[in-house]
Amino acid sequence: MKRRKRNIVYSSADDDFQARPPDPPKIQPKPLPPAQQTIGIQREKKGRGGKQVTVMRGFQLNEKALARLGKQLKKACGSGGTVKEGGIIEIQGDHRDKVAELLQKQGFKTKFTGG
């Protein structure tokens, strides 16, 4: 097998590296009271190696409130999970009924979505 010859070129010129413009500030969704939010609760399994995950979508809360709610739900279900951008909370396992009950106690409207 023939080895490739790699020519590595180093440069110390300052104009080789251009600074990337700063990212525009993220627009936070305007937090709504829980009574005005409808949360879609869905069980997903596809693309996760056969493992089930309870996904809740539609939260319109700021980052801190969403993280706090995610922590409460994970603790109540006794399992792990994550909080993602866009108002999504994922909890490992099928906990749809328990999550719906907990969210309704906090004043959210819930709706089961998916098949």
In short:
This protein has 115 residues and is of the alpha+beta class.
The chain-level mean pLDDT equals 87
Residue runs with pLDDT of under 50 for 5 or more positions? none
C-alpha end-to-end distance: 54 Å
Q: What's the number of extended β-strand segments?
A: 5
CATH architect. name: 2-Layer Sandwich
Estimated share of beta-strand residues = 15-25%
CATH superfamily: SUI1-like domain
Helix run count: 2
Radius of gyration: 22 Å
Overall helicity:
10-25%
Reading the helices and strands in chain order gives EEHEEHE
Count structural domains.
Answer: 1
Biggest sheet layout: 5 strands, mixed
Spatial order of the strands in the main sheet? Answer: 3-4-2-1-5
The CATH class: Alpha Beta
Quaternary assembly: single chain
By CATH, the topology is: Translation Initiation Factor Eif1
Q: What is the 3D form?
A: flat
Structure class: alpha+beta
